[in-house]
Amino acid sequence: MHGSSYKSEASENKRPLNLAERIYQQLKNDIFDFQLLPGDRFSENEIARRMQASRTPVREALYRLERDGFVQVHFRSGWQVRPFDFRYFEDLYDVRTLLEVAAVKRLCGHMNIKEQLAGLITLWCCQESQRLNDSTLLAEMDEDFHFSLLELSGNQEMAAIHRMVCERLRIIRRLDFTQEGRIAATYDEHSHILNLMLNGNAEDAANFLSRHIEISKNTVRHITLHRIQSAKSRYNINIRAD
Q1: Which of 8, 56, 157, 189 has the most beta carbons within 10 angstroms of its beta carbon?
Q2: 72: helix, strand or coil
Q3: Contacts (Cβ under 8 Å, ≥6 apart) of 144
């Protein structure tokens, strides 16, 4: 009796969480894909109608997006996609770089560094014929590469902060792999970083990693500006057509 009651309660509790998660992921994807543009305003009722959901899971999803830095809530005037602020993203990139450089230097001091890096070496130091070409998959692998550096360094607080920073950067970082040549460059650069670390060249590895992140930052800044302008142009054309 108690078991069936528990399952029933668990099912009841799970449904709204799943719905809120679905709404959260959909809205975040819309922001990432510039279907919702920086500065766009909307209400909870509009999202609820679009998602065919009640306002409770919509509100839960929106407050989670606010905590993650993707939207803002304004008293009396509803919600807004966070306006694009490159200073904000550059500050996040600075934090990311500091954390990763510190992690690489810590890792280079580990006695068992070869064993620790074995999985990354298998993925990134492969023959060109073994390289993957799926940009979506490579974007995830790239993120995992940088996560791994923090996790292997042994400081879990640094790793947690790094994940939070990278989550907020994901809206623009994923655009890096839409550029021709970035997949091959990422393999080459990751491989070079790993080889420098294996050879104990901590300073060279840290400096090269900093340049690697800086190149990515400059690339996505350019792409983001272009994507926003293109999205605004499409939006204006659609309005005129209507």
Answers
A1: 189
A2: strand
A3: none
